[in-house]
């Protein structure tokens, strides 16, 4: 159901995210890089409020968007490159994911870019659906995928522009390339794949997001 007014469930979801932001601000690995990342969080929250008030969102789209911000906030605390996800999995499930997958780098940043395509798909779809009411579901699907690709390119360009003004060490901490010269390309590809992962099943099995 499309809603334009906050209800108790929205305030609870936002409150949980606010708690996560406060906790993440306790002794981050590098405070300056943390603030740069959290500037993006503030921008995305403002954008969410504007979209919610202007065109409305269903609660699924709203919570998936906040879930993406939560994943980003965790990454900001650990500078992305140092999120100890493998240690957490080892402690909880006694399973070494990095070893099993043959990963030699921290893959948390890859998760965030994949999540961008998956978790923001319904919100972006809703925006295009309102903007282009006569567009067919497949056309909207293509528009969302193209938007994810274009916005991913823009994000990587912004990262590059920020890095130019930082020292090499600060730039590495912020960008989290971990020595991979193709890092930006892989990130953009994963975001695109994420949008397709969410969008294709929605075309085959139309959801409330597609029909609202």
Quick recap:
75% of the residues lie in helices and 0% in strands. With 212 residues, the chain is an all-alpha fold. It has one domain.
Written description of the protein model:
Helix 1 (8-24) packs parallel to helix 3 and helix 8 packs antiparallel against helix 9 (168-175). This protein has one domain (8-211). It is built from 11 helices and no strands. Helices cover 75% and strands 0% of the residues. The radius of gyration is 18 Å and the shape is globular. The chain has helices at 8-24, 31-55, 59-77, 85-93, 97-101, 108-119, 121-131, 137-164, 168-175, 183-204, 208-211. The longest helix has 28 residues, at 137-164. By secondary structure, the protein is mostly helical. The mean pLDDT is 90.
Low-confidence stretches: none
Mean pLDDT across all residues, rounded?
A: 90
Strand content: under 5%
Distance between the termini: 7 Å
**Helix/strand structural class:** mainly alpha
Q: Count of DSSP E strands?
A: 0
- Main beta sheet strand tally, sense and closure: none
For the CA atoms, what is the radius of gyration?
18 Å
Helicity, in percent?
over 70%
Domains (count)? 1
Q: Please tally the helical runs, counting DSSP H or I stretches of 4 or more residues.
A: 11
Shape: globular
Order of helices and strands: HHHHHHHHHHH
SSE topology:
Blueprint: H1 8-24, H2 31-55, H3 59-77, H4 85-93, H5 97-101, H6 108-119, H7 121-131, H8 137-164, H9 168-175, H10 183-204, H11 208-211
Helix pairs in contact: 1-3, 2-3, 3-6, 6-10, 7-8, 8-9, 8-10
